[in-house]
Design brief:
This protein is α/β, with parallel strands linked by helices. The chain is about 60% helix and about 10% strand.
Length: about 500
């Protein structure tokens, strides 16, 4: 289900227009309505404090659920379930189709991902698809080598070569997996595979699954009456090679990991991200992935959500997978690479306009259902971008431009804003300490050098947030506003 083509450019421009209005207002108010701007910053800052406190609670709850999931005997739970539901789907009827799209990924990265997949007890019920790009010169050699190494580890290892220059496509993961799944569908139909019992998992090349994720997924699929209206998502941990990053950049990955878990463990409507699972039938019902989007996981979810009148859910499986962090030859190179990765992610701002478009196309869906999704898609896009302009200009810019005297008679306002910033910093430190504990790192760095670097990292973090969050979002939204061609930029990662 596509948004209204005639209005596509306007829809794509919506995030940039909203951000532009907010930023222009903030700059104007900084000079002409400083106290008003400070009040707006005050409200936003304390909203973020409240939200992050809730995220901290959800994160702790998520860690508890992870500990429980680690100890689960999924086949044992199935055996218990099947005694009460004798006509349920048999465990061995479930087949996993795992799509591994890649473009110029190193052979070592792909080999490690496949090796981790082979550790799953469900490996014999897996079809692995090496979704290669035909334009890559080494694609055939890499794929055939991996196929020969791992073919006996799984039910089968298939190879697809996505051709370049297909009509209506851009260079993106979404076009690749759309092509791959259609090729595999033909193979499955020829072999008589029951597609109603096929679960599709799409993953990044550097995704390292927990060995029991697919056992948990099998159990959840069988026992969930809404299996054909569900996306399954595991928490993502950006821990792979994190020790190779400068301390300041480690923090960015720490908070990304923490917030993704918080989403899954709370009432907040979670959306799939990066690597996720969904029934073949749900994908088929909504014509698989679109071929011209960067944020393919959001787009697929939105297509299904509006196509099923809001009757779609994201269900967590609390067995985290590890992703490799974006790296670089030095601090500035790593900073640049992370910046462009965030720009790519922020091109998901396009889905805000897409959501508006399908809301218009589907007036039969209750308005609350439509607005709920629009709010979910828009919230982080606006807060993480324009919100930071308001916080900086209203929280610190007013006193720098006008002096503290501007708060005469409004001293509580100034104190309240600064206290909110202190609270945000304290919460950030707590998240960092928890992540260190999860990774097995000491809460207090062992050496004086590590302590100094950690302190410097926290001092740099507000600036890095602007550089690696707000600015890339502005960049991506301007790109969409200008209607410039979209393409998928591969982030450099090594094992």
């Amino acid at each position: 289900m596509s948004a209204i083509p005639h209005y596509q450019r306007l829809l794509d421009a919506i995030p940039a227009i909203i951000t532009g209005v907010i930023v222009i207002f903030a700059i104007w108010a900084l000079w002409y309505m400083p106290i008003t701007l400070s009040w707006v910053a005050f409200v936003l800052a304390w909203y973020l404090v409240a939200r992050i406190i809730f995220a901290l609670y959800a994160h702790a709850r998520g860690l508890h659920q992870i500990r429980q999931a680690y100890s689960c005997d999924w086949r044992g739970l199935y055996a218990l379930f099947s005694t009460h539901h004798p006509h349920t789907i048999r465990w061995d009827e479930i087949h996993h189709l795992v799509l591994l799209p890649n473009d110029h990924e190193s052979l070592d990265v792909l080999r490690l991902s496949l090796r981790q997949l082979s550790k799953s007890p469900e490996a014999s019920h897996m079809t692995i698809v090496l979704a290669m790009e035909a334009r890559e010169a080494q694609a055939h050699d890499k794929a055939t080598q991996l196929q020969s190494e791992f073919d006996t580890c799984f039910a089968r290892v298939l190879i697809t070569y996505h051709p370049e220059g297909q009509a209506g496509e851009i260079r993106c993961k979404s076009a690749n997996i759309n092509y791959a799944i259609r090729q595999v569908k033909a193979v499955f139909e020829t072999n008589g595979q029951n597609l109603s019992y096929v679960i599709v998992t799409t993953m990044d090349a550097d995704t390292f699954w927990h060995p029991h994720y697919f056992s948990a997924l099998t159990y959840e699929f069988i026992t969930d009456a809404h299996r054909y209206h569900t996306f399954w998502q595991a928490p993502i941990r950006y821990h792979g090679k994190i020790e190779a990053l400068p301390h300041a950049l480690r923090l960015v990955n720490v908070y990304a990991s923490a917030l993704e878990l918080s989403y899954l463990a709370s009432w907040w409507l979670a959306l799939p991200i990066s690597s996720y699972s969904v029934s073949f039938r749900l994908l088929e019902a909504h014509n698989f992935w679109d071929k011209d989007v960067i944020a393919e996981e959001w787009r697929m979810f939105l297509k299904a959500y509006f196509g099923e009148n809001g009757n779609i859910q994201t269900k967590p499986i609390f067995l985290p997978f590890t992703a490799t962090v974006v790296q670089g030859a030095n601090f500035w190179d790593a900073l640049k690479n992370r910046y462009y990765q965030t720009v790519r992610h922020a091109l998901g701002s396009k889905e805000m306009g897409y959501t508006v478009g399908v809301m218009i196309q589907n007036p039969q869906i209750p308005i609350i259902t439509r607005l709920r999704m629009l709010g979910r898609v828009s919230h982080d896009i606006i807060i993480a971008g324009a919100g930071w302009a308001v916080l900086i200009l209203g929280g610190q810019g007013v006193s720098l431009v006008h002096g503290l005297g501007v708060y005469f008679g409004n001293g509580a306002l100034f104190i309240g804003i600064q206290l909110a910033f202190v609270m945000l910093t304290a919460l950030a430190i707590i998240f960092w300490m928890i992540d260190n504990h999860v990774r097995g790192e000491p809460i207090i760095p062992k050496t004086r050098r590590e302590i100094v670097l950690t302190v410097i990292a926290f001092l740099m973090f507000p600036f890095l947030t602007v550089i690696l969050l707000a600015l890339p979002i502005f960049h991506a939204q301007l790109w969409l506003l200008l209607g410039l061609p979209l393409s998928f930029r591969v982030s450099p990662k090594t094992i």
